[in-house]
Each structure stands twice: as C-alpha cells, then as structure tokens.
Amino acid sequence: MTITVQIPTALRRLTAGNAQLTCSASNLGELFSVLDQQFPDLKPHLRDEAGQTRRFLNVYVNEEDIRFLGGNSYSFHDGDEILLVPSIAGG
Predict the structure, then answer these.
(1) 3-state SS of the chain?
(2) How many domains does the chain have?
(3) Residue 13 near residue 6, CB atoms below 8 Å
(4) What is the pLDDT of residues 17-36, one digit of tens each?
(5) Residue 34 lies in a domain
(6) Does residue 7 fall inside a structural domain?
(7) How high is the pLDDT of residue 46?
(8) 63 lies in which domain range?
(9) Measured between alpha carbons, how far is 69 from 30 in angstroms, rounded to an integer?
C-alpha cells in the first residue's frame, strides 16, 4: 500500500524542500513516525508534548478532513493523498 503526503510551502523548510513524499503508513500515527524519522525538525510542528496531533494542524485525506473520517483511528487506503495544513496566524 502506498500513500502520498503533500507538504505545504510553510513546512518545506523542515523537509529539505520536499513538496511530497510517498510511504506505506497505514494510519496517522505511523505517518507521523515516518515523518519524525525522515525529518526530525518537523516533529514539533505535527505533535504536541503528549504526542497528540497539534491543535492547529489540519490533516486532509483525499480533500476530506480526517476528523470526519475517524481521526487517529482512520486507516489509510492504497492511493490516498494526505495533505498537512498548519494554521498560520498573522495580523
């Protein structure tokens, strides 16, 4: 099984400029572990100190918010496209 992860511009400085990657993670926890290993500087932008998904990080699977698909318990399917979208504040 292969999924594609899209990395938004705001996070690419932490992924050596990579805009996307493919992996075989079966759920969000596994995906974050893969990203932690490949891009350690990305970890604090994905998970909080308790290991939970950051409150202001939105995760979409095939353009659907993962929270409406079951959240952390959602199992990825072959060909899923994952998009990580951090909330960016400013004023």
Answers:
(1) CCEEEECCHHHHHHCCCCCEEEECCCEHHHHHHHHHHHCHHHHHHHECCCCCECCCEEEEECCEEHHHCCHHHCECCCCCEEEEEECCCCC
(2) 1
(3) no
(4) 999 999 999 999 999 999 99
(5) yes
(6) yes
(7) 92
(8) 3-86
(9) 17
Q: What is the pLDDT along the chain (91 residues), one digit of tens a residue?
A: 899 999 999 999 999 999 999 999 999 999 999 999 999 999 999 999 998 888 889 999 999 999 999 988 899 999 999 999 998 766 5
The sign one gets for the Cα dihedral 29, 84, 73, 55 is positive
**Rounded Cα gap, residues 58 and 23, in angstroms:** 19
Instruction: Please indicate, yes or no, if residue 91 is contained in any of the structural domains.
Output: no
Indicate whether 74 belongs to any domain: yes
The CATH number for 40's domain is 3.10.20.30
